[in-house]
């Protein structure tokens, strides 16, 4: 599926002319080893905030290949506050193009899964490359030796709904069968390297064989990671409770408006009340979308926790078995 | 003759990212070039340089190698925006021998940083088909004229190179090793239980090796080495001696914690679904 043209615009925020297809042929994501190592390096060095950056690559038949990436500087640092990200992106891509690197923006990476990903995904998927993905990498798990790299993409229904900000009403969402589970779809990630890279890997293996503490993974001390994940889950559940409370107040207001309207209708007067009603609806609609994103974040975190707990249990069972043999 | 020698115990520590970057850029070079050049980024300590990253710089070969200095400095400034602690520490070239314009380029880099290192990465795999990575420090030598005629050059002395990794990088490169022997050179990141299994397999392998070694010594087939014997003693002493009841307790409480957490997360998910059903009608 050819979706790039010669007059590619570097910025990802400009929509392109390619027709939006509803079915995406891309089923897998091939990631180069270099991209993974660059993401790891950036996440390791970015201690205060999330590590974010852009992925470059190309689309080939049924796969999306990610061949290069670069990092965004942290905008919360004082020296970077007035950095123009668009300009930075354009300059870097121009420079990379001169050395024959791929310059097609195929997504971005982030080191945590938060709702702002959805908004960014909308822009990326509306731009020239529709199959853009978001790569989420968990830094803390990687320190224990478990590389977790997941690729997400907005489902076509979600894309439609998030595109039009004013149009996101609960009816639309229900029609499109959009709930927090169908917001993102996860794509399988495969690492693939060229021959030269494989020979480099052989050399690296020889030199670093003894220098690893790779058995950190079997460490039974899971509490640190678990605490961190639970803490973020608690935050999300708080937001969730907030949204639920807002929903009930909205319902109450709705009923009040309806009863007032009925009274007014019976007196043949409908003026300013309709305005209030519209405002409440708009406000509620916006918060619905936040609730949906929050729901998907909670879902993702629960999945992560389940995965982590499964690993921990497996390790504990193992330890028990070894202990019993003595 | 002014001869300044580099320190005798200077060494270069490279992270795999820099090497992967070099290979990546080498694979994408245009056809007229055999070698590529680029900058190395990293930090510098008293007796070592740690190379964290690298990027390629376009150059043109007419008669002399024309190095694109603007490109090098703009890219270096971009990288510095992301991580301000890493600066230019040297440069690299690919190929089995040093390139011909090396002294000029090295002089440019001595303006950028104090004691740049020149890394030669052999991507042609000519020397006994291994990936040779060599590093050199430059020292200027020659007769210094009053009129500063350029009759001096740079002598490159080799310094040792080591590959160092963060823990996560090591985990990632171990993961990629499995892809070498795959049919399509592909490797998937393993699921959580697969990782536990593979870590255990590795441990089992190492233990088997050790026990067969010890058996061989007991039966007299292999010569005993007191150093290894002492290390084995240390190893066995690090296994903590815990009362079996205490250990049982610890394992049980951990298991209870994990099961509870799993139950809670399922409960949260169920509540999400319920909420969705309620609020969408």
From TrEMBL, chain A:
Chain ranges of the MPN domain: 29-158
Alphabetical UniProt keywords: Cytoplasm, Initiation factor, Protein biosynthesis
PANTHER family noted in UniProt: EUKARYOTIC TRANSLATION INITIATION FACTOR 3 -RELATED
Region (Disordered): 1-21, 251-280
Composition skew (Low complexity), residue ranges: 11-21
Record-linked CDD domains: MPN_eIF3h
Name of this chain's protein: MPN domain-containing protein
GO molecular function: metallopeptidase activity; translation initiation factor activity
Compositional bias (Basic and acidic residues): 262-272
Organism ancestry: Eukaryota, Metazoa, Spiralia, Gnathifera, Rotifera
CC per GO annotation: eukaryotic translation initiation factor 3 complex
Ranges annotated as biased composition (Polar residues): 1-10
TrEMBL record, chain B:
Gene3D superfamilies assigned to the protein according to its UniProt record, in alphabetical order: Cytidine Deaminase, domain 2
Domain MPN: residue ranges: 12-142
GO CC, alphabetical: eukaryotic translation initiation factor 3 complex, eIF3m
The UniProt record lists the keyword Protein biosynthesis: yes
Originating organism: Adineta ricciae
Stated name of the protein: MPN domain-containing protein
Keyword Cytoplasm recorded: yes
Entries under SMART domains matching the protein: JAB_MPN (SM00232)
Domain of life: Eukaryota
